Amino acid sequence: MTSFAGRLNSVLQTRNITKAELARRTGIGRNSISDYTSGKYEAKQDNLYLIARTLEVNEAWLMGLPDVPMDKPNILSVYQQLRSERQKRVDSFAAEQLVAQQAEADNIGDNVVNSSSEDADDETKTLVTGRASVATDLGDGDAQDIGASPIVGRVADMPHGTD
Q1: Whole-angstrom distance between the N-terminal and C-terminal Cα of the chain?
Q2: Topology of 1-86 in CATH?
Q3: pLDDT tens-digit profile of 37-68?
Q4: Residue 76: CB partners within 8 Å, gap ≥ 6?
């Protein structure tokens, strides 16, 4: 079974997904999915990508290429296939990334200051993210810096979970 239609039908059966469900999950029309599974047409690259991603299969396998595994390899299986020297490079890179991520998180924590006002019953956390400089034109084409102030926002108003 090396055709797109054959592999699509096979993975739909293996994953216990109907053509209607695939159409719903991918946003591809039901008629197009039926055309793909009957072999009338093959999916173009954009739809092939959507189908492969939705079914969690390798795009090259779905296209019918020989000697390509159906499932996309996960990082652990790729890592285990590397020679020792390359595994050490991956370990080093991953460790550097982890340290950088922790430093970024620590820096954000360092820039959060607690403040409260006499009018407020609760304490407000403010995140200082940088400084903004204000300049004014003196009329002769020269600009003069008239001050700088921190850029702040309430932590509660900041987006969370983005890197």
Answers
A1: 42
A2: 434 Repressor (Amino-terminal Domain) (1.10.260)
A3: 999 999 999 999 999 999 989 999 999 888 88
A4: none
Question: pTM score > 0.70 for this model?
Answer: no
Choice between 27 and 146, residue whose per-residue pLDDT is larger: 27
The identity of residue 95, as a single letter, is A
Distance CA 5, CA 131 (A): 58
Calculate the CA 131 to chain-centre distance. 29
CA angle 150, 151, 155 (to 5 degrees): 120
- Where, residue-wise, is CATH 1.10.260.40 in the chain? 1-86
Q: Tokens 């108003």 — which residue?
A: 157
Which residues lie closer than 8 Å to 17 by C-beta, 6 or more apart? 25, 55
